[in-house]
Specification:
mainly beta; 4-stranded antiparallel β-sheet; single chain; 3-stranded antiparallel β-sheet
Length: 105
């Protein structure tokens, strides 16, 4: 989840949101595509899954999924059982001020 963000919750679980698509990103670095920045947002395939890791069970789960979480360079804020996904890039050079919320039970 390069470019994504992780945070440790009060109970020790780890939440991971966003990140670039490794294959798309590495291809752009290796092939220097002149039109790389001109594609629609969906083309970049940023990670839209909200992942939760439970170290006591050594298990990952997807607790939410959607385009509102598909960002890179975002910030996270945890308040109780809510995690706020703040800003980030929707695609290279295009940032959003949007705040999305996911509940963690």
């Amino acid at each position: 989840v390069g470019g994504g963000m992780a945070t440790t919750l009060a109970d020790g679980r780890i939440l991971v949101v966003g990140g670039v698509n490794k294959d798309v990103f590495l291809s752009a670095l290796q092939n220097q595509q002149p039109d790389y920045l001109s594609h629609p947002i969906e083309w970049y395939r940023f990670n839209g899954d909200v992942l939760l890791f439970d170290p006591s069970e050594k298990k990952w789960s997807v607790i939410a999924s959607g385009s509102e979480f598909a960002r890179a360079g975002l910030a996270l804020a945890v308040l109780g059982n809510k995690v706020y996904v703040i800003g980030g890039e929707l695609k290279p050079r295009i940032r959003t001020p949007k705040v999305s919320v996911v509940s963690v039970d």
